[in-house]
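Report of the visiting student (M.T.), summer placement. My assignment was to run the structure pipeline on a short list of targets and document each run. The first record concerns Transposase DDE domain-containing protein.
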Amino acid sequence: MSIETKTYHTMGDFRSEVRYYLHYLESTFVLIHKVSKTMTAEEILVEYKQQYSIENRFRFLKSPLILGPVFLKSKKRIHALGHVFILALMVSSYLEYRVRKSLNENQESLTLPGNKKTQVPSIATILEYLKMIVVVSVNGE
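After the run finished, the structure tokens were exported:
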């Protein structure tokens, strides 16, 4: 497929094949797995896509800032990176769980921007609140 070098200013100017090709170039899906060899890559992907909560949790991996600059040469390092991501997911999920449980038990809520209140804050909201904590040391204490 050849792409002309003409500059287009609006999406309406793109031909459908050019749009499709550019979308293809920008599409990335990272799938780290260790399952039996009886499943094909397509079957693993379909199974994974049916697990929406997992997909939602690993949404940050799709950011080019996270995985874009990472180049790993060995399978061992790729597996290790996968384990690091899973560990980070577990810690963030547990932090979300504990904060939500505490808010529920104490009948409290967190105030979001715009004075909205929530009893089920995301990990991003919790981390923003944690950034506001100031620790002061006086005479080493």
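Residues 1-9 have pLDDT under 50 and may be disordered. The two ends are 67 Å apart (CA to CA). I thank the supervising group for their guidance throughout the placement.
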